[in-house]
Every structure is written in C-alpha cells, then in structure tokens.
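Researcher: Sequence recovery benchmark, item below. Answer with residues only.
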C-alpha cells in the first residue's frame, strides 16, 4: 500500500485530473479512454506510456485486446492509489519523504544540472590539470622483482643457484614445489624482505628507492622468471628475480581532454551544489538542538533498519497493477522508476 501511495504522492498516476496527454500520433490525444472517479485516462496517456517501452514490448500492444489489457493496468494502478490515499497513506512520513526526494531530483535535473555542461569546462583548466598531473597520463616502463639480500658472496652464490633452478612459469603450489619466497626465507638476511617474500614492488629506471646496481640489473632481465647473478651493493650482495613487467604509456592531451573535462566538471558541479545549498541554508530559519540530537539511539544489531518500500505483499491475492509478469507493487509500464531514499536522510 505504501508503495502505491508513494507513487501517487510523487505525481506518477496513470491518469490526470482533467489533463491532456502528449500527442504521439493517431487521433486527438485529449479524447477520454476511461474515467476513474474524478480523473480521466486519455488517448495521449495510453500512447505515451506504451511508446516509452522498448520496440519489443510495444509490439505486444498493437491489437485492441492488448490495449485493453494495458489500460486495465493503468486503471488498477489508479484505483489502488486512490484507495491508499483514502486510507491516509498520502500523509505517511515515508511517502512524504519519497515525494520530497523525487521532487528534489526533478528540481535539480531541470533547474540546476541542466545548466551545467561538460563542454563548458575551459580549455585552460584542462591544460593546467594535464600539466599538474603528469603521472596520470605518462608513465615509464616498470618492472617488479623479488630479491635475496646477504652479506657473503658464497651464500649469495648458493641462493642464486637454487633460484636459477626454479621453473620460470608459475606451477601449482604443493608442499614439494619450491618457490622463490622459500629461497628468500632460507637465505635472506633482510627481515623486512622476508616478510614480503623479497618483493620490491614496481619501479622504473629512474627509481632511487633501491640501489642503482639493483635497478640497472632488474631492467636487463628479459623474461619473467629470469634471475640475475649476485649483485654487489652497499649492504652486501643481492640476488634478484623478475616477477612482472609493466609497459609505460604516453597519452597526449588531445586523447585525454574529454576525460579531464569530465573530472573537472564533477568537481565544479559538486562545488556549485555545495554553494547553492549553503545559500539556501542562509535563507532558511534553521534551529539545531544538539542536546536532543545526542539522545538519538542507533540500533547497530543485525537486521536493523526498515525494509525497502514496496517489498511486501499488497491488495487481494493475485491482484496486480500491471500486465501479466509485473510484480504487484510495480507501477504501470512507462512510469519512471523511483530512486530509493537513503535511510535516515530527509
């Protein structure tokens, strides 16, 4: 019942109070097809809602028999909405909240968002963003390696021999199958590296996170699974194994202009909305009682929260508001879907 009342409160009834439908072809769209109390369903009403469907669905309603079936769905929807209103559901807080949510949505879409366009983002702003965020659009080739770090050359040679014997391609892990991380655990004298399995992550040729000798040797490894002989560093010797390669990219401004425009547009829209709401607040009489706010009790237990609107049964058994196949709470074909209202927000 609540879902139907919400649809009525949202201004989505199938028929109008002495209204005129939009002409989409055929006869006079204002001619009355049916009456429901003081409301009428016109030729235009039926045409508009059928023609909003996909071509496949519209093809079902070419005969008078099917048109009657569709009309019946509009009548059912209207009489149920009228009954819900008669029982006072149009004044239900949840219904009013949904109505406000839909009203705000339409208002923002027509009077706010429609005035903002992606194309209005200045080219100068796009170029500035492109120059200030080079890493997003240009990246060098990168490699990822794992390493064993030891102090003695003899120990490094043993680690290298064992690592070299490992298969390059990953194999299903079994207790008998040795992995490079096992070599790290066995030989590495770097505790931090042991916890990461020796993984150094991705880096490019200009990286200064690791010794220059390790970086240069990493980029000389041709294939994933290749192992470099022991490398002399300030900490001793490192045995590295190539685990991944990631090619770089260079995306020119012309290629990413639209992407940047959209990002800046979202930021501009958000800022404009914040300013708009702030201005509305200044014009409104707002009072907040924080003492009473602190008395609000939040139920954090499992299953807390109200069920979504329209999810329960309604009406007599077998009653539907639309053609066969529609759920009992689904509005007639062509009726815009309602957006869910965030719980606890006006």
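Model:
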């Amino acid at each position: 019942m609540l879902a139907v009342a919400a649809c009525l409160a949202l201004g989505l009834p199938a028929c109008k109070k002495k209204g005129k439908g939009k002409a989409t072809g055929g006869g006079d769209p204002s001619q009355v097809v049916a009456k429901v109390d003081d409301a009428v369903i016109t030729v235009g009403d039926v045409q508009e809602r059928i023609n909003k469907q996909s071509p496949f669905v519209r093809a079902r309603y070419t005969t008078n028999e099917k048109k009657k079936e569709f009309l019946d769905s509009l009548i059912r929807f209207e009489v149920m909405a009228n009954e819900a209103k008669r029982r006072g559901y149009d004044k239900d807080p949840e219904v009013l909240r949904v109505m406000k949510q839909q009203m705000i949505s339409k208002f923002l879409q027509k009077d706010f968002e429609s005035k903002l366009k992606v194309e209005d983002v200045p080219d100068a702003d796009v170029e500035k963003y492109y120059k200030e965020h080079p890493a997003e659009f240009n990246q060098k080739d990168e490699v990822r390696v794992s390493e064993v770090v030891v102090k003695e050359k003899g120990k490094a040679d043993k680690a290298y021999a064992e690592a070299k014997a490992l298969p390059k391609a990953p194999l299903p892990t079994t207790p008998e199958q040795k992995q490079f991380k096992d070599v790290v655990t066995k030989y590495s004298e770097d505790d931090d590296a042991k916890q990461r399995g020796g993984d150094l992550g991705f880096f490019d040729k200009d990286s200064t996170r690791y010794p220059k000798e390790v970086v240069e040797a990493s980029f000389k490894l041709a294939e994933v699974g290749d192992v470099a002989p022991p490398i002399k560093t300030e900490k001793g010797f490192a045995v590295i194994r190539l685990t991944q390669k990631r090619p770089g990219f260079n995306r020119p401004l012309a290629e990413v202009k639209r992407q940047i425009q959209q990002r800046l547009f979202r930021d501009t829209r958000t800022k404009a909305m914040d300013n708009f709401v702030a201005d509305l607040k200044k014009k409104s009489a707002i009072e907040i009682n924080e003492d009473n706010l602190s008395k609000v009790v939040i139920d954090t237990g499992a299953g807390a929260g109200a069920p979504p609107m329209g999810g329960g049964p309604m009406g007599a058994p077998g009653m539907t508001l639309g053609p066969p196949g529609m759920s009992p709470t689904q509005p007639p074909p062509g009726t815009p879907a309602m957006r869910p209202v965030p719980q606890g927000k006006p």
